[in-house]
Specification:
The protein is α+β, with helices and mostly antiparallel strands and 462 residues long. The protein has 20 helices and 13 strands. The strands form three sheets. Strands 1, 4, 5, 6, 7 and 8 form a six-stranded mixed β-sheet that branches.
Length: 462
């Protein structure tokens, strides 16, 4: 499998053909000739194991000092699923189809009532529509006789029920875990792939498929997953720098990262609750002692109420009397008075904004760090679409892609001989075991680590 993905051969039938004609493959698998069913079954059965293989390969990169563990970059991309758009249904799409079919049924019955000779079709139409008839209907367009139209309507009702029970509010027939994803005016039925890349040599630390349709809630989970993959222990005195684009701007996520020892670098987007048409909130000065805001006209806005929107609490400040005769009211708001709505995470948002402004060279690294893997996998290798179905199978294939990407990066940085020495080194095996214990309970891990050190000294002295 690794050979195939390294050489852009993913089809199980093509891999089967390579076992008969490609001398490299014949030598590699010692003249075995698995058929395409065996290859495909192996890929499905071992989808979870591919993630472990990627993690084990991190040990080799660690041994060669290729992970910096100082800066991580996070990004997401949409990968197509083995599911055509015509096989994906949302509530809105089902409603449109039902309207067309209802109209077609109405026209059909009106034509029969007018005396059209459709006695045979009429008899079929009065028969009870079975579930088997509904499932046999593939094309849900408004075409067919009365029985077929009623079967299509029944099928739409089934799909609508499935939409209600599905967390994504959608149904995909070929790949049930895929969903309709939209970004930049384009849409694709696929999976939202998240990637965490280490900055030193642009190696992929972690890849994952998430159910969300955007990146807004993925900052903290992906940063945490990257730390776990590389065994990073967060320290507030020496924070880990995490770079992401504006799509990851989320006040709650940023606060969780900042409070756990992660230094966030991303363009902060103004939240919907505090968007205004006039002066920005930065134009208002905050008086911490009195808990008031001073507007550009030097009027004081007092705190009147608090409200909660989604996961965030907001403080609301205004002064109706001061705004009533203000000459700058037209520049400030379209309403009768100006409200200033301030998030409870305002201080953290300002801190992240200032950090990006003061250190533009750090954030400028984001594109070259994290967008290179996606460009390589999708544009150069042609892996923009999964060749398997289901979230589990797609994640397994995704980890295979990441493994092959890292493998080529390591070979380019260190060369074949250096990598092979690292793989066969007994010290690598010892360090892999020690690193595994370091991430567990410190008391037990410390005892086992000391025992391993003593054991290794005996072995190497021999």
């Amino acid at each position: 499998m690794i050979y195939g993905y390294l050489n852009q051969i993913r089809s199980s039938r093509k891999l089967e053909a390579e076992t008969h004609r490609n001398l490299e493959v014949i030598w590699l698998i010692e003249r075995a000739h698995p058929d395409h069913w065996t290859i495909n079954h192996f890929r499905k059965k071992n989808a979870d194991a591919f993630k472990k293989v990627l993690r084990n390969f991190h040990n080799i990169a660690d041994f060669l000092h290729l992970f910096g563990r100082e800066i991580e970059a996070i990004d997401g991309s949409f990968f197509k699923a083995l599911n055509n758009k015509s096989k994906n249904f949302t509530r809105a799409k089902l409603n449109r189809l039902e309207e067309k079919i209802d109209k077609a049924i109405s026209e059909y019955t009106e034509a029969l009532a007018d005396g059209d000779d459709e006695s045979e079709d009429t008899g079929k139409g009065t028969e009870k529509t079975t579930e088997e008839d509904a499932r046999e209907v593939e094309n849900l367009g408004p075409k067919g006789n009365l029985k077929e139209l009623r079967a299509k309507k029944h099928r739409i009702e089934q799909l609508r029920s499935d939409c209600e029970t599905n967390t994504s509010g959608q149904v995909s027939l070929n790949d049930p875990d895929s969903r309709l994803l939209q970004k930049g005016g384009r849409s694709v039925v696929g999976h939202n792939v998240q990637c965490v890349v280490d900055a030193r040599h642009h190696l992929i630390a972690h890849v994952e498929i998430v159910d969300a349709g955007n990146d807004a809630g993925q900052l903290r989970p992906m940063a945490k997953a990257g730390c776990e993959a590389l065994g990073i222990e967060l320290d507030p005195e020496h924070p880990l720098k995490v770079l992401a684009d504006a799509g990851y701007s989320n006040s709650v996520q940023m606060a969780e990262c900042e409070n756990s020892g992660i230094e966030v670098h991303l363009p902060v987007k103004e939240t919907t609750a505090i968007k205004t048409v006039g002066f920005r909130i930065e134009d208002f000065r905050y008086d911490e002692d009195k808990d008031e805001y001073i507007c550009p006209a030097h009027k004081r806005l007092t705190r009147h109420s608090d409200k909660r929107i989604k996961e965030t609490n907001y403080r609301v400040y205004y002064n109706c009397a001061a705004c009533k005769g203000c000459p700058q009211l037209a520049k400030c708001t379209r309403g009768k008075y100006r409200k200033v709505t301030v998030s409870e995470y305002r201080e953290i948002e300002d801190r992240v904004k200032q950090r990006v402004t003061d250190n533009p060279e750090i954030y400028a690294q984001r594109k070259q760090i994290v967008e290179h893997p996606f460009g390589t996998l999708k544009s150069i290798w042609g892996y923009g679409q999964f060749s398997v179905t289901g979230k589990r199978g797609c994640e397994g294939e995704l980890n295979l892609m990441a493994l092959c990407y890292n493998w080529k990066r390591v070979l380019k940085e260190k060369g074949f001989e250096c990598v092979m020495k690292a793989i066969t080194s007994p010290k690598l095996a010892k360090e892999a075991v020690m690193n595994r214990f370091r991430n567990r309970n410190k008391a037990v891990g410390g005892l086992l680590t000391s025992q391993l050190k003593n054991w290794s000294q005996i072995q190497f002295s021999r």
